Each structure stands twice: as structure tokens, then as C-alpha cells.
Amino acid sequence: MEGLISIAVGVMTACGVYLLLRARTFPVVLGLTLLSYAVNLFLFAMGRLTIGAPAIIDPERDIYTDPLPQALVLTAIVIGFGMTAFAVVLALRAKADLGNDHVDGKKR
Amino acid sequence: MTSLPFIVLIPFVGALVASWAGTQGRLWSAWAAGAVTLASLALLTAPAIGVLQGETYLWHMQWVPQLGLSLAFRLDGLALLFALMILGIGLLVILYARYYLADQDPMGRFFAYMLLFMGSMLGLVMSENLIQLLMFWELTSISSFLLISYWRHLGEARQGARMALAITGGGGLALLGGILLLGEITGSYELSVILSSADIIQASPLYVPALLLILLGVFTKSAQFPFHFWLPHAMAAPTPVSAYLHSATMVKAGVFLLARLFPAMSDSVWWTSIVAPIGLATMVIGAYTALFKHDLKGLLAYSTISHLGLITLLFGIGTPLAAVAAVFHIMNHATFKASLFMAAGIIDHEAGTRDMRRLAGLWKFMPYTGLLAMVAAAAMAGVPLLNGFLSKEMFFEKTFSIATINPGTWVLPAFATLAGAFAVAYSLRFIHDVFFNGEAADLPRTPHEPTRWMKVPVEVLVIICIAVGLFPGLTFGPLLAVAAGATLQGPLPYYSLKVWHGFTPALGMSAIALLGGTFIYAIRKPLFRLHERSVGRLDARTVFLWLEAGLMRAAAWLDHLLHRPSLQRMLAITIGAAVVVIAVGAWGIDLAPRVAMTPLDPVGLAAALCLIVGALGTVVLHRRRFTALVMLSVVGLIVALAFIKLSAPDLALTQLSVEIVTIVLLLLALFFLSGTTPAESSLWRRARDAALAIAAGTLTAGLTWAVLIRPYESISGWFLENSVPGGGGTNVVNVILVDFRGFDTLGEITVLAIAAIGIYMLLDGLRLDAPRTDSRGRPWSWDEYPLILSTFSRLLLPLALLVAVFILLRGHNLPGGGFIAGLIAAVALTMQYLANGIAWTRPRISGKLNPLIGMGLLVATSTGLASWYFGYPFLTSAHDHFHLPLIGDLELASAMLFDVGVLMVVVGITLVILIRLGELDALGRSRSRQGEE
Description:
- Chain A is mostly helical.
- Helix content of chain A is 67%, strand content 0%.
- Chain A is built from 3 helices and no strands.
- At the A-B interface, helix 1, helix 2 and helix 3 of A face helix 26, helix 27, helix 28, helix 29 and helix 30 of B.
């Protein structure tokens, strides 16, 4: 499972970086979203992988996953949404003011 | 002594007062500046009397003790000498400037800058802490920049100010390095410690670098060769500024530091072999060049450079007697040079020019000013019975006695006499060329004596020159004794402040200098021609400007290289740099597993395959934007599934609801952005990006793996143990969010709120024309909203909201909480827009959701504040059991209220973004439909 998660993080990062380097705003936003998935999963994995032991206190259980990275990632997901939304709206504004959706605002 | 900080503080406050007074009336600011200086002087009186009796006053306050930084002032003999010069000459300069400045010069600004400089300078000389000293040192650089560029409309004033700032500011940086090294060696930045640890300092391997850096600061500030050239260009400043900064104070800051650190650093070969030659070279070059300057102030500037070189040379010689002579010359030079600058200003003011080739015969028009100037110039030349003679005599004697002990150093008295002769020559020129030498032909104005009060400051200084020259022991004697004592931090050597020492070698040197100087002046005309054809062509300014331009070009080149206005390029550089840094750091780490692996199962494998296909599909199909979006949503869903599998139900719920909102948002945006991305990247560009992407991906995969295979230690045990007893909830993730780390969460929802404001502003007044057709050129069809969907969504809304409430309430104990509940509520409301359209939904759900964000923040914050009311730290939660009829036993924590705040913020933000964007879509659509019709 560890290898699989590592590969998933790597693939999402690679795809995100490639899209981030595109010249139009929409693929860049897609890339940002992919990258934030990768980052969230990466941060989450810092608490190691535990199956079937959520951090909900139960007197009959004494194995729990690490709740701290989860709490961090939870807010990161929501903030990631805020960031994506900002980038999208910025792209729209750029398109409206500059007449094209190139990241540098120039027509080709 | 509690008055010490106020002596420094008063001018700073006074600068504000003078600036304000200047708006009330022109002369008010001058009065204010004078009053402020007098107040500081009055405060200095009481401690001054103590210092003259041998006391050293310290005032100390902790500031940042961790950094060794304290606010500490020190008043000993050396500081007193400088403080008296700063305040005394400052007072005279203020009086002089009040008459010097023209009607169109803004006086408030001038006096505010003056007082700013005065305060900085006082702080510098009275600092006990070296870092604090450096701060004041930099403040003098900045305030002198402001003063030199006071006449902003003059190009040469701006350039001179910039040059002075660049040189002295650069030196200040070096000085900072030196001071830090000194603190490293002694373990303290306090002067009391440093001055008494000479042995430790000079034995340290860091001594030489520290010395070099400190000397760099000293030499730039005190205009020592080869950094001397900024001073003549600073003469573009108004003359009162030159009289103050460039004779008595600013340029003396460098030699002040030499004096201050003299006991700690001077007893070494390094000191002598660096400081003395630099001083000697500066003295000779300054004296030589001064003779050939046609500008009165240029002559005085080079003369100042020469005298500063003399003082530096004396400190460089390093014996106690030489240090006494140096301190004495600091005092004498300040008096005669300030008066000469003022005299030059009067001549400029009354005759309209400072060019000695045009000036002549002024004696007829202004004999009184002429007399004052003659006395001061004679003091500068070292004529007996004036103060300049006494310290120069001490200097000559010192150089001669060294030469008799060590025959190899005969150059010292020889060059000293040569510089003395040139000093006589340029002093003669200052007087003869201006006041005699025939008649002036083309003066811009008919000169006359200035106003009475403009001469008073000159008179005062000239009287001091004469009084000290006649009765040195009675006048400067006591102050010199304590100042020299503080410089040496030890017993004073024997010295005699007498006018007549008999026929000594020094007297002979003085006589040679006087005769030689007169001879040099007599043959000046051929000398001028020779100079102009040879050395006169060299101009350090050209070199400086060339270096400056080169630096600017290099910066522009680097900027152009790294910062083309291209996001792609900059991102590629940033990512490339990150890849390189991480790769170098992670090179060769151990990748063999050290812990047991989690078993792999077929479902997990299948899901991972889906994720990889989705991610790659997003990239491959990214030019078909809608398809790419669908692919992306697959990735998001798989991530949510992974969270479920890996014991993170809260994350799965959050990811799932964020996923929905994000996709809706991107769909809305896609309506305006065209449906396809044109293929425009070159093959090379795509290959480069792919290489970067693969490198980044491999690295992150490797890093993730490297972390996952290592044994694990966590601080989470504490959270798990304290979640129920401390936070009153069994869902540890939620308890961390709203309780243990509640302050973080408050910060995060604030960030969200700020993002929402940004989005709101970006959307405000945005006008986008919706495309008439889709990307394949087909016109949009305007379907009605599907009936079944709209009916069911209306029915489901209350249920969905109930789910949100349920998720919120159970959040403390089971997966859920404010973030998730907020997202669910937002999705439920967004659903109404999607299913029923803006026109139907708008009157039913208030569009004004912005207040919800603010209210949410307020609720969350006031929950935190409430705990203050009960005497607990911010955001401490309380919890208790309640028994409610029908519902049963309920455990409620005050953190629940905090969670409600989070919910409100999340709902508000999501809806503000989506609805605003949706309205834009509707607007665009109706406009495009109108266009069709």
C-alpha cells in the first residue's frame, strides 16, 4: 500500500506540474487542483497509513490512526478550494479585461 | 542617569515639532529647532559636570536580550566631547541657516532633517550597545542623504546624496558584520565589556576579519582614501549642512568609532599597518587636491578629507600620546572648519558665486567677514597662537619622535610637513583669491556685509579658535583630559598644552610648512597647469558612476534573465530550482523498508489504477477542457475513497463535498473560457515541461516512500488521551480543529474570508460576453430546467439541510463538523440554482450572503473571547451534559458554537463565489440570447 500511495502522489504531482506550465489559464487551474490533491495526500501520508482505525475514541479499541495530519489536511482541503476559486475568478477577470486567456495576457 | 535617553530623544521629537512649526510660519521651525537643541543642551549640563569630574554615566534597559540587544546609553568624556560639538555647533548652524536659507526654501523640512540628524548623531556617540550604535550610524547616513538632497530640484544634489548614501551605507553593512564578529568574540555587544576585553579580542582568529570590516565602515564614513570622493560631491548640500555634517559631526563619526574602539582593538600590527598608511595617504592626497579646487566648498571638502586623514593617522600610530593629539585635533578642526564653511556660505550668499576664479577683492566690500575668515583659515594652516597650530604641533612632534626611534619611518615627518605646506598654500588661496588678488570682474551680485546675526555663529567659533590658541589649558584642557581618558580607558600620558615649547623639531617643521606653503602658493599658476594636464584628469566620480552603471546593467541583465514577464518561464525556474534543491538534499537516502508494510488489496490497486488513469487523462486530454474536467473529478473521488480506506472519514467527507463544489465552479467558469485549449506549445517546450514534471513527480514519490518506510513517532498520543477528558468529544480530528488547535482554525477561516473578499472584488463590475456557440461552433440550445430534477431538488432541500445540521451536531463525536456541514449546506443550496435556475431561486434565497461570512467569523471569535470572560485563555472550551426532552442525553461543548461559526463562514464563502459566478453566467447567457434575437 505504501508504494501505491507514493506512486499516486508522484503521478498527481507530475501531472499537476505539467499542467501548471501550460500557457492558458484553465489547464493551470486544473494543474493547481491536481497539485493540491497530491499535497493533501502527501501531508496525510506523513501520519502513516492505518486501515480500519479512525481516530474516534472507542473504549474497546486501543489502536488509532494519527489525527493530527488529518486535522491539518482537512483545513488544507477547504483552503485549497478557496485558492482554486480565486485562481478561477482571476482567470475570468483576466479574460474579461485582456480579451484572452493566456497566462501572460498576450495574444498569440 | 535617567536623563541620558532624553538627550537623544528630544531632537527626534523636535524633528516632528519643527516640521509642524514650519507649516505655521517660516521662521517658527527655526525657533523650534533652536529651542529643541537648547533643551537637549540643558539636559546635558548636569551629567556633563559629573563627567568633567571623572564620572562615566550608564543607562540601561532590556530590549531584545536574546539577541544581546539592549537600549543603553553611555556618557563618558569622549561621548561628552562629541555631544557638545553636536549640540553646540548644531545651535550655531541653526542660527546661521535661519538667515542663509532663501525665501523659497521650505524651512520646516530643513530643520526637521537637521534635528533628525542631530538626534541620530547624539544616539551614535552616546550608545553603550554596539548594535544600537549601528542603528544610529545608519540613521545618520539616511538623514544626511535627506540633507544633501535638500535642494531636490538640483541634479547634482540628488547625485551627490545618492553617492554619499551608497558609500556610507555600504560601509555601514560592513560595520554591521564587524560588530557581529566582535559580539561573537566577546559574547556581548556592550561597550563596557568590549573595551575591557582587548586581550580576548586580539587573540581571536576573528580579530582580523572584524577589524577589516569595522575599518571599512570607518573609512567610508570619514571619507578616507579611496572612499573619499563622496565628500566633495556632498558639497551640493546647502552650506549650513556642510558646516554641520562635513566639518564637525557626520564625517567625524568614523574617527569617533576609531577612538571608541581604540582600547579594544588598537594594540596590534594589523591596526597600525592598515590605519596609519590609509590616514597618511588620505592626508597627503586631500591636502594636495584641495589647492587645485576652484570651488570654495570643494577646497574645504578636500581640506576636511586631509584633516580626517591626519586624525586617522594619529589613531593609526596607536600610542596613547598620538590618541590624545587626535582627540585634540578633532576639537580644533571642528571649530575652525565649521566657521570656514559658514564664511564660504556668506561669500556665496552675498557675492552669488563660490568660484575662486571669479571672486576677487572682496575685502573692500566685506572686511569684517574677511577678518573672521582670515583668522579661521590661519587656524587651518597651523599659524601659531591659534588652536590649529597646537594640535598640528603635537602631530609633528609625534611623527618626528617616531622617526628618531625607527629611522625607517622618516617618510612620516616628511609627508606630514608636505601636507602641512599644502594646507598653508590652500589656506592662503582661500583668503588671497577671495578677498584680495585685484578686482572682481563679473560678480553676479554686488557683495556687502551680511546680516548681523549671520556673522554671530562665525564670530563665536573664531573667538574659540583664538581663545584655545592662546590659553589651551584653560579652555579645552579639562574636556580634552576626560575625552582622551575615555578614549584610552586608562591613565593619560604626559602631554603639555603650552603655546611655546621652545625651539623643538616640531617648530622647525611648522616653519618649513609655513614657508613652503607660501612658496607653493607663489608658484601656483604653473602648478595649476601641470595639475590640470596630469592628476586633475583623474576623477573618482567617473569610476563610481561607471561602477554604478555596471551594477545597474548587471541587475537588469539578471532580472531579465530570471524575470521575463512570463508566468510559464518563472514557474519553470521555480520548480526546476525546487527539484534541484530537493534532489541534492535527498541524494543517496536509504530507500529500503524498515517497518512492516500495509498489505495491498485488489480494490486498492484498482482504485489506484483509476487515479493514475484519471490524472494522466487530465493531462493527455487537457486541450479538450470539459473531458479533462471529468477526468479530474475522477482523481478527486479516488482521493476521497483513499481517505475512507485509510481511516480518515472526516477527510473523505470534506474531500467529497469540496470536489462537488470545485467541479461546479470549474463548469461555471468553463462557460466563459473557451472549451478547448489551442495547441501552441512547441515540441521542445512540451518535452522540457514533461521532463520537469517527471522529475518533480519522481522526487515527491521517492520522498513519500522514504517517509512511509521509516519508523514513526508522533505527538498525537496526547491528543488521543485528552480528547474526551479535555475537549469533550470522541472525534479527535474535530476536537483538534475546534478546540486544541482552534486558533489555527480561526486563522484558516479568516484566510478563506479574505479570499472571498478578493473574489468578490474581482467579480465586481466584471463584464464577460458569453460565447454564442460552443467550441465546435454549434449554437447553445436553451433548454428549460429539467422538471424532475427541479421538483426533487426542492423536496430534498429541507432534508439536505437537516443532514447538514446532523453532521454539525455529531461532528464532535463522530465524523462531521462545521467544515463538512457547511459544505453540505452549500451544495444543497447550490443544487437549487442548478436545478431551478437563478430566476427562480434568487427571490427565494437571499443573494446577500456576504454578511454571513462576517457573522461566522464573529461567532467563532466571540466563542474564543467568551472564555476570557470566565478567566480562561482565548478559545478554552467548556463542555457538559444536557438532558433534553425527546432528544435525550446530549453532550454539548462550547466548541460547538465555534463550529457553527466555521459553518457560517464556509456556507457564506461557497455561495458567494458560486452564486456570483452563476449570476454572471445567467447575465451572459441572456445577453447572448438577446444577441441572437
